[in-house]
Predict the structure.
Amino acid sequence: MNRRVDPLMPSFKNRLRGALVVGVLLAMSAAQAALFEDDDARKAILDLRQKVDTLQQKSVDDLRKANEENALQMAQLRRSMLDLSAQIESSRGELARMRGQDEQFARELAEVQLRQKDMLQSMEDRLRKFEPSKVRVDGLEFVAEPAEVRDFDAALATLRKGDFAQAQSSFTDFTRRYPGSGYNSSALFWLGNAQYAQRNYKDAVTNFRALMSAAPTHLRAPEALLSIANCQVELKDTKGARTTLAELLKAYPQSEAATVGKDRLAKLK
């Protein structure tokens, strides 16, 4: 069978071939373009990755640096805290030492003040021995020199011991040394008693009368009158004794001496 050849076939094939060639060329061009585009993308990705790696490395470096700085700061802070702790302990020790010193100082000050107080008291006691002071004897209050107080008390102590001779001597000496003393009336009374105890009745009457003349309102005045009457009785002066007892009852009716004198007056004949 004979095929009919179309006169237009070669031209069509040529055109088809040309179209194929153009298509291949276009495909190749597109592939090349795609290839170029893939290289750019790859390059961009590589650049981006490099940037990321760089950033990551920088972050790591920064973090390490920060950690190192923090570690250094922590070490410095730890040292500072240790130093501060040591300073606090030192301050506590110093404070304890100072507190101990303060307590010791307080004790020493208290001891000094006590010694000073004792010294002042001792000084006052010594000065008091040389300064006049107020005394009260037989209802009378007066100022006496230390020597007066000493001598009167010594004479009275001698009388109370029963040493009448020494008491007479002491009270006689006292009245001579201190004629203006507030003790003088009491000294005359006890002098008369010392003489009465030694049966020196006349001298006793003299001293009892001296008391009555110097201080008729003295606390011992009623007793002095009763003692005079007793001396007169011993001297066998009954009349004089009755007169003295009558004087006692008239001058001091409320006294104890008057009560005793009234009984004795009743017994005198």
In short: The helical segments are 9-130, 146-160, 164-177, 184-197, 201-214, 221-234, 238-251, 256-267. Residues 186 and 199 are 20 Å apart (CA to CA). DSSP finds eight helices and two strands in the chain. The beta strands are 133-137, 140-144.
